[in-house]
Amino acid sequence: MQRRLGLGADVEQSNYEAADIYAADGAFAPATARDAIAALDARVLVVAGELDGGPLPRVAAAVAGLFARAELAVQPGAGHFPWLDDPFCFSGTVETFLRG
Q: What is the pTM of this model?
């Protein structure tokens, strides 16, 4: 995948310091996060590939449902990197949203 993304073999893919604190005690406050997301007064585009395993399109739809002004786009035939699978479809989706 590094080559496909244009990354050299010497590019570090992991941030171990961040990984150690990512799921530390007290790092997650789901109710607080949901309240903040619901109160966000901004348009949000949530994009998922039809074949993406994370997030699955149904999970992306649930995430979009947490925002007051979200749009969901599920890109047909795309996996986890929709901008690589079909760059024209992806850029068209984003452009349409931004012109909204």
A: 0.75
